[in-house]
Amino acid sequence: MLTNPSQLILKNSDLFTNQNVLVLNCEGDLLPKQLLEIASCVTALSLDFHHHLVMSQHSSPNLALHFGHQLPNADQTFDSVIIYYPKAKALAGYLLNLAGQHLKVDGELIVVGENKGGVKSIVKQIPDYFDTPFKRDNARHCLLFTSQLTQKAPNIRLNDWVNSYQLDTPQGELTICNLVGVFSEKRLDEGTKLLLSHLPRLSGRVLDFGCGAGVIAAALLKAQPELEIECVDINAMALKSCELTLEANNFTAKVYPSDGLSQTQGRFDGIISNPPFHDGLKSTTDIAKTFVKESVQKLKNGGGWHIVANRHLPYSDTIAEFFGQVNVLAENNKYKIYSNKIKHN
Question: Which of 113, 194, 286, 288 is the most buried (most CB within 10 A)?
Answer without folding.
Answer: 113
